[in-house]
């Protein structure tokens, strides 16, 4: 049976190789299976949980749409829309925030990381962010949610919220309890500068990540400068447990090449690190440069991008508004 897919990406700029390998590449494969119904959302309401410049936000929304399309998502097959265009997301988030428990949210590690030391100054939205994410998913009866490893905990919360709503209101299976779709290997791409930190949009040094808008020169330069260790190429996968940077680079190669870590290790064992880096650069240029060029082309055609969003909002709204009406009925409104 086909799957109902929902996922979201924040329009906060600097979409990078981690977003691509952890999430977007998976979206493309799901979009290509004609049995699936896919919805990919630019989660602009999530973006404003931290301060955004309105002009930049607008550009970043378009850039995220351009990245989806350039990566291979077909807007004729999948719904692409921005979250703020469909009012049911905000409404649903409020209602579900009355279902979710403080104790559940207090366990969310991403809030702790993002709020940092000064929790008192974090927005309330940053704290309740996973409830909005649950509304996103539950409004569309999504059966499967493709995400990177860092979103696993938020999906568990979404499942808990759905189950509690169904129990509290005696509505067996009314809210669909979704399954996460997380890549088994390479679900967490790490920084090129520190193999213990994940590759991130917000990292200050641009050398820590490959952006999906990087050109050939930038990619080659970043791989040349990527941190490694002085040892020769590993001869076994076990050896990589202690060698985080080497593991990450070999993982990136494997993921782009659709091969296992084991076969990549076997392939490069006994060779020089510089030879491996050259081949990794070539592979990255081959896979990422076409996406980067296409993003730039699409960004020159704003009316096209805006039309995709407008059509997407219309389609998404016709699904979500029905669901929110039912939810309100169940609540007694
Ligand atoms: P965000 O940019 O935070 O909206 O993330 C969009 C998607 O990319 C989510 O599914 C994340 O789990 C995924 N993602 C973000 N960073 C990484 C990373 N370093 N490795 C793997 N997946 C990631
Ligand atoms: N919280 C996700 C992230 O930061 C983005 C997101 C928002 C999402 N709503 C979603 C992902 C619904 C999957 C499904 O990456």
Tell me what you see in this structure:
The structure is a single chain. With 333 residues, the protein is mostly helical. The protein folds into two domains: 4-187 and 302-331, HUPs (Rossmann fold); 206-297, Tyrosyl-Transfer RNA Synthetase, CATH 1.10.240. It contains 13 helices and five strands. A three-stranded parallel β-sheet has the order 1-2-3. It has a two-stranded parallel sheet with strand order 4-5. The longest helix has 30 residues, at 302-331. It is globular and about 70 Å long. Bound molecules: adenosine monophosphate and tryptophan. Adenosine monophosphate binds next to helix 1.
Which features does this protein show?
333 residues; Tyrosyl-Transfer RNA Synthetase; binds adenosine monophosphate; binds tryptophan; mainly alpha; single chain; globular; two-stranded parallel sheet; Rossmann fold; 2 domains
Going by CATH, the architecture of the largest domain would be 3-Layer(aba) Sandwich
Domain module tally:
2
Strand order of the largest sheet: 1-2-3
Class from secondary-structure proportions: mainly alpha
Helix run count: 13
- Cofactors, ions and other ligands in the entry: adenosine monophosphate, tryptophan
| Proportion of helical residues | 40-55%
Q: Nearest-angstrom radius of gyration?
A: 21 Å
Please tell me what the overall shape is: globular
Distance between the termini: 35 Å
Low-confidence stretches: none
In CATH, what is the homologous superfamily of the largest domain?
A: HUPs
The CATH class name of the largest domain reads Alpha Beta
């Amino acid at each position: 049976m086909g799957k109902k897919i929902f996922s979201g990406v924040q329009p906060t700029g600097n979409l990078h190789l981690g977003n691509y390998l952890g999430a977007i590449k998976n979206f493309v494969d799901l979009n290509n299976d004609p049995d699936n119904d896919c919805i990919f959302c630019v989660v602009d309401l999530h973006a404003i949980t931290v301060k955004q410049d309105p002009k930049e936000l607008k550009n970043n929304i378009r850039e995220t749409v351009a990245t989806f399309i350039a990566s291979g998502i077909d807007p004729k097959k999948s719904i692409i829309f921005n979250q703020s265009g469909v009012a049911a997301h905000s409404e649903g988030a409020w209602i579900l925030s009355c279902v979710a428990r403080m104790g559940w949210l207090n366990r969310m590690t991403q809030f702790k990381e993002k709020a940092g030391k000064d929790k008192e100054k974090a927005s309330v939205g940053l704290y309740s962010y996973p409830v909005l994410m649950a509304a996103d998913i539950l409004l569309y009866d999504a059966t499967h949610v493709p995400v990177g490893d860092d979103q696993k905990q938020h999906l568990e919360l979404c499942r808990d919220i759905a189950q509690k709503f169904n129990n509290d209101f005696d509505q067996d299976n009314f809210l669909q309890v979704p399954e996460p779709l997380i890549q088994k290997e390479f679900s967490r791409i790490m920084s090129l500068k520190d193999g213990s930190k994940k590759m991130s949009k917000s990292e200050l040094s641009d050398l820590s990540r490959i952006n999906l808008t990087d050109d050939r020169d930038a990619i080659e330069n970043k791989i040349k400068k990527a941190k490694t260790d002085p040892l020769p190429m590993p001869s076994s996968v076990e050896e990589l447990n202690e060698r985080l940077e080497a593991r990450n680079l070999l993982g990136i190669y494997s993921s782009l090449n659709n091969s296992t870590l084991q076969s990549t290790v076997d392939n490069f064992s006994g060779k020089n690190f510089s030879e491996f880096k050259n081949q990794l650069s070539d592979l990255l240029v081959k896979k990422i440069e076409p996406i980067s060029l296409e993003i730039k082309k699409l960004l020159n055609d704003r009316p096209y991008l805006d039309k995709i969003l407008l059509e997407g909002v219309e389609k998404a709204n016709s699904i979500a508004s029905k669901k929110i009406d039912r939810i309100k009925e169940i609540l007694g409104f």
